[in-house]
Specification:
Strand content: 15-25%
Number of helices: 12
Strand order of the largest sheet: 11-12-10-9-8-7-13
Number of strands: 13
Oligomer: single chain
CATH architecture of the largest domain: Alpha-Beta Complex
Largest sheet: 7 strands, mixed
Radius of gyration: 20 Å
Order of helices and strands: HEHEHEHEEEHHHHHEEHEEHEEHE
Number of domains: 2
Distance between the termini: 59 Å
Helix content: 25-40%
Shape: globular
CATH topology of the largest domain: inorganic pyrophosphatase (n-terminal core)
CATH class of the largest domain: Alpha Beta
CATH superfamily of the largest domain: inorganic pyrophosphatase (n-terminal core)
Length: about 350
């Protein structure tokens, strides 16, 4: 029995399903949650909810939720801790309680479907495939094998998620992504796909990207920069995507201060570098970081700098120095930048 049928039979014995998205969910997570909800409905589960924490701040993610009318609810600890018998808890696009989610560590999880690198995954049903390019690819396989009704909304969501997660099939895409896209293609709304691909950008995001461009330094083929303090978390991702296309740059790392934490986003096309491992080694002792060979991120609490200063300008200077030094050491870079524009 394959994983799709195993999952379906597991769901058919339950009465309720709570799907938890990771913090600040992206299209891959959201589309996967939507698909799992549809499979649960087909298996006879009427009581279903999708929870998220953090923000849906990236304009593309907001457009995804709004245009596809995806029903989401803010994370509620009681929904995952006070469950009745027959109530299942599922993770999609993440795997471990307390890691990139607000679920308390040690909480029993029933279903995990994910493609990110990870260890210590514990659930009654686990489909963890690091080799594929998107979690939505796995869910598309389930929808296809189980003959779940593939309406325009579901097909568009899954196809866009696969395209976005693989940067248009240029990052981490496998034959499975192409097979999934071929299946979804005729059912998707192409006008809606175009709308999702080109959402409007806020002025604050443009300002943050401009700051990242101004502050960039380059050592060999590695670009390191920061956006200062910002409320636009996803501006870091967009800045990293954009700066990774700069001529001569194989790896781009962008960080910034958001609320009470330092957020880090990285992109790499250098075959010699596993950027997820590099970030993990650089920041695991002071925060959390990791990801794929080509795409990674991290978070470091600002509290570790609390004894230095309460002045934001001075704090930024210290953060810049410390974070950059850790990146330079972790990537074995030269001390002095080859180019500095600020």
């Amino acid at each position: 029995m394959g994983p799709a049928q195993t999952l379906y039979e597991f769901l058919s014995e339950a009465s309720e399903l709570t799907i938890v998205c990771h913090n600040n969910p992206d299209p891959d997570c959201l589309a996967s949650a939507l698909a799992l909800g549809r499979i649960a409905a087909a298996a006879g589960i009427d009581a279903r909810q999708v929870l998220y924490s953090g923000d849906i701040s990236h304009q593309q993610n907001r457009a995804f939720v709004n245009l596809l009318d995806i029903d989401l609810e803010p994370f509620d600890p009681a929904a995952v801790q006070n469950r009745d018998e027959g109530s299942l808890l599922a993770f999609v696009d993440h795997a471990v309680p307390g890691a990139n989610n607000r679920v308390p560590e040690g909480t029993p999880v029933d279903i995990v479907i994910d493609h990110h690198p990870g260890e210590d995954i514990d659930a009654q049903f686990v489909d963890h495939r690091e080799a594929v390019g998107a979690t939505a690819t796995i869910l598309t396989e389930y929808v296809r094998e189980l003959a779940i009704d593939l309406d325009t909304t579901l097909a568009t969501a899954l196809l866009f998620a696969i395209r976005r997660e693989t940067l248009g099939f240029l990052r981490g895409a496998t034959r499975a992504e192409y097979d999934a896209a071929g299946y979804l293609h005729d059912h998707a709304d192409r006008d809606l796909l175009r709308q999702l691909s080109s959402p409007s950008v806020s002025g604050a995001t443009v300002d943050a990207i401009a700051t990242a461009i101004q502050n960039r330094t380059v050592r060999g083929s590695v670009l390191i920069t920061h956006v200062g303090r910002t409320n636009e978390r996803d501006a870091l991702l967009q800045a990293a995507d954009y700066l990774a296309t700069l001529e001569g740059v194989d790896t781009a790392i962008v960080f910034g201060m958001l609320a009470e934490a330092i957020q880090i986003s990285a992109r790499s096309t250098d075959a010699r570098v596993h950027i997820g491992d590099a970030l993990h080694e650089a920041f695991a002792d002071v925060g959390s970081a990791g990801g794929h060979r080509e795409m990674a991120g991290g978070e470091v609490p600002l509290g570790i700098f609390a004894d230095y200063t309460s002045d934001d300008t001075q704090l930024l200077a210290i953060v810049d120095q410390v974070i950059t030094a850790r990146l330079v050491a972790g990537l074995n870079l030269t001390d002095e930048p080859d180019d500095q524009s600020s």
